[in-house]
């Protein structure tokens, strides 16, 4: 351990990792091809200069939030206590993306909450109404306006490590700026004509909160592939399926079109939201396609 410092990765720039230690911040590289570090990871480093160091050891993780397709694995953050999926009625929200974020949280074992930003916009009411499905599933809804009052979120953050994820333009960086005075992250007007965000934030970064705890800002995502999950992971990630466990005719029912399926019956009665089941079905299809492509 001589000459080594314990630290936490606070930013990732390609193969460079900004690591914060009790003795300051270091621009670090990994030794050899270790790689695979995420914002929030704990490491041991060995300084090689005033503010440069080599990462000697990756310490064990409590959890890891990530997405992946056949070709890439994208690490979002490690060792986080909770995920805030940030949504807004403007630009037009994508409920499929929200479901994927929630599935990733369930699979990683990290509690998820849903922020509904831009409540000052009149378009918010129908979106909030739609989100009641999620509140019923146990995901807390936190409506607020980042530009005027972030108090509804502030109460959740003290002493914990939290990450903000979501589509581009929903206001993640605006939230961080309001909660971390010295953050001063660039934010950008969304393109209302094109009804899209602009991908203003390009790197994941951890900020310290004045009242203790950390808040991680991440770049807006358009898609969220979950290639690392198998069928069992997927089913387990939909809380509304849990009370129906064991009630399908076939023990290995996939809840897609099987006769005597309790989940499909619940979709018909409305006990399981059809839009949620569609998200599940889309993820199953992707899984099947990936399996076929590998053969
Ligand atoms: N009306 C309204 N606009 C907001 C609010 N919060 C943020 N915005 C605006 O939304 C736009 C996008 O905000 P950002 O904070 O850059 O969004 P982001 O989620 O960080 O976007 P990416 O970095 O691209 O992922 C900016 O023009 C903000 O001023 C709000 O509460 N109300
Ligand atoms: Mg941003
Ligand atoms: Zn079934």
TrEMBL record:
Cofactor names: Zn(2+)
EC number, UniProt record: 3.6.1.-
Stated role: One of several proteins that assist in the late maturation steps of the functional core of the 30S ribosomal subunit. Helps release RbfA from mature subunits. May play a role in the assembly of ribosomal proteins into the subunit. Circularly permuted GTPase that catalyzes slow GTP hydrolysis, GTPase activity is stimulated by the 30S ribosomal subunit.
Keyword Methyltransferase: no
Organism the protein comes from: Parasulfuritortus cantonensis
Domain (CP-type G) ranges: 62-224
Record has Transferase as a keyword: no
Keywords, in A-Z order: Cytoplasm, GTP-binding, Hydrolase, Metal-binding, Nucleotide-binding, Ribosome biogenesis, RNA-binding, rRNA-binding, Zinc
Enzyme class: hydrolase
Cofactor: binding comment: Binds 1 zinc ion per subunit.
Subunit structure: Monomer. Associates with 30S ribosomal subunit, binds 16S rRNA.
Short name of one Pfam family: RsgA_GTPase
Positions of Zn(2+) binding: 248, 253, 255, 261
Subcellular location: Cytoplasm
Protein name as it appears in the record: Small ribosomal subunit biogenesis GTPase RsgA
Source species, domain of life: Bacteria
GO molecular function annotations of the record: GTP binding; GTPase activity; metal ion binding; rRNA binding
GO BP annotation list: ribosomal small subunit biogenesis
GO CC, any one term: cytoplasm
Residue span, EngC GTPase domain: 78-222
């Amino acid at each position: 351990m001589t000459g080594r410092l314990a630290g936490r990765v606070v930013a990732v720039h390609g193969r460079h990792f900004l690591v914060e230690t009790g003795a300051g911040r270091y621009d670090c590289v990994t030794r050899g091809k270790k790689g695979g570090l995420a914002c929030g990871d704990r490491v041991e480093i060995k300084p090689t200069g005033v503010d440069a160091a080599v990462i000697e050891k990756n310490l064990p993780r409590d959890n890891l939030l990530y997405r992946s397709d056949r070709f890439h694995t994208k690490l979002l953050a490690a060792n986080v206590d909770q995920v805030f999926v940030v949504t807004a009625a403007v630009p037009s929200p994508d409920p499929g993306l929200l479901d994927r974020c929630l599935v990733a949280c369930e699979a990683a074992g990290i509690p998820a909450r849903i922020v509904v930003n831009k409540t000052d916009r009149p378009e918010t009411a129908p979106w909030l109404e739609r989100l009641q499905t999620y509140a019923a599933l146990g995901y807390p809804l936190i409506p607020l306006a980042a530009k005027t009052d972030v108090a509804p979120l502030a109460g959740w953050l003290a002493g914990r490590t939290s990450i903000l994820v979501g589509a581009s333009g929903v206001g993640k960086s605006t939230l961080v700026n309001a909660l971390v005075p010295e953050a001063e992250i660039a934010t950008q007007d969304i393109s209302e004509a094109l009804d899209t965000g602009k991908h203003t934030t390009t790197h994941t970064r951890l900020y310290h909160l004045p009242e203790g705890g950390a808040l991680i800002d991440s770049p807006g995502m358009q898609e969220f592939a979950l290639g690392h999950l198998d069928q069992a992971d997927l089913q387990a990630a939909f809380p509304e399926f849990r009370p129906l466990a064991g009630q399908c005719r076939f023990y290995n029912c996939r809840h897609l079109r099987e006769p005597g399926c309790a989940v499909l019956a619940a979709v018909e009665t409305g006990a399981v939201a059809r839009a949620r089941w569609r998200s599940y079905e889309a993820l199953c299809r992707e899984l099947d396609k990936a399996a076929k492509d590998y053969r």
